[in-house]
Write a structure and sequence with these properties.
Strand order of the largest sheet: 1-6-4-3-2
Order of helices and strands: HHEEEEEHEEEHHHEEH
Helix content: 10-25%
Strand content: 15-25%
Number of strands: 10
Oligomer: single chain
Radius of gyration: 20 Å
Number of helices: 7
């Protein structure tokens, strides 16, 4: 009897990440631990990271475990009628500790949402969602304008060259064991039991908006459950908040709900 590869099962990945358990790759009892080349991962697929592990270099650039890196949000959503997902619509990548990253952190949307990379061909692995359908692929992204201002970049973002950036600021090569790579990380999507999770959470909050205090018992469908850090797979109680539709639409990056 052949057993399934549990490591690749979606429910297993979700439970492991919820528990904060570390996935051990390349285990061999006779050889012991095998180090995976972090430099290679950063140059290819990129690595989903806890942003708290990012360090700020003296020049304002970003450092992850000894590597100067770019960071970006892998999971993108489009709300336009035609599902436009041009470079202008997609997330921007960051190369410095800029105003935007500081704002994301202050708004509680900085935790576990970013991928670190040092790939220099201008392509990023991105999952683009529109109308409930997700398309995975390599896409070109623009650099963040606030990052360019932070580094006093004199040209416009269309002229930015990643290779020139790494040549100017330099890089290091250090081997380490990553927690997981870009393909192993759970997607930013609701879990299969989301309806139950949402119902239980709203019931526990007595069907009341946690922001304005309005009771929605007679209008339950307009009481939503908001993910504070923006990651829909992160359903820890501390990451959820019951909000009426009006308060929900005022949360950062929820402008589409006001239309």
């Amino acid at each position: 009897m052949n057993l399934p590869d549990f490591i690749k099962i979606k429910q297993f990945i979700y439970l492991r990440k919820t528990m904060g358990a570390r996935l051990i790759n390349n285990w061999n009892q006779s050889l012991g631990w095998k180090k995976t080349n972090l430099d290679k991962i950063l140059r290819t697929t990129g690595k989903e990271i806890n942003p708290e592990d990012i360090e700020i270099n003296d020049d304002g650039t970003l450092n992850y475990e000894g590597h100067r890196v770019l960071v970006y949000i892998r999971d993108a959503r489009t709300y336009s009628y035609y599902g436009s997902n041009t470079k202008a619509d997609l997330p921007k990548f960051h190369l410095a500790w800029c105003k935007t990253l500081k704002q994301m952190k202050n708004q509680g949307r900085y935790d576990k949402r970013y991928v670190a990379t040092k790939r220099d061909d201008g392509l990023f692995l991105v999952n683009v969602e529109h109308n409930g359908k997700t398309v995975e692929g390599e896409r070109e992204l623009y650099p963040c304008r606030n990052c360019l201002r932070k580094l006093s970049y004199s040209k416009n973002r269309e002229e930015f060259d990643i290779k020139e950036f790494f040549e100017k600021y330099g890089e290091t090569q250090i081997e380490d064991i990553p927690l997981f790579d870009e393909y192993d990380a759970p997607k930013d999507e609701y879990p299969e039991d989301w309806e139950k999770v949402s119902w239980v959470y709203r019931k526990n909050e007595n069907w009341t908006c946690e922001k304005c205090g309005r009771n929605m018992r007679d209008n339950k469908k307009n009481l939503h459950v908001h993910h504070i850090n923006g990651n829909r797979s992160d359903c820890r109680y501390s990451n959820l908040k019951a909000l009426c539709i009006d308060c929900h639409s005022l949360e950062p990056y929820h402008e589409h709900m006001r239309n």
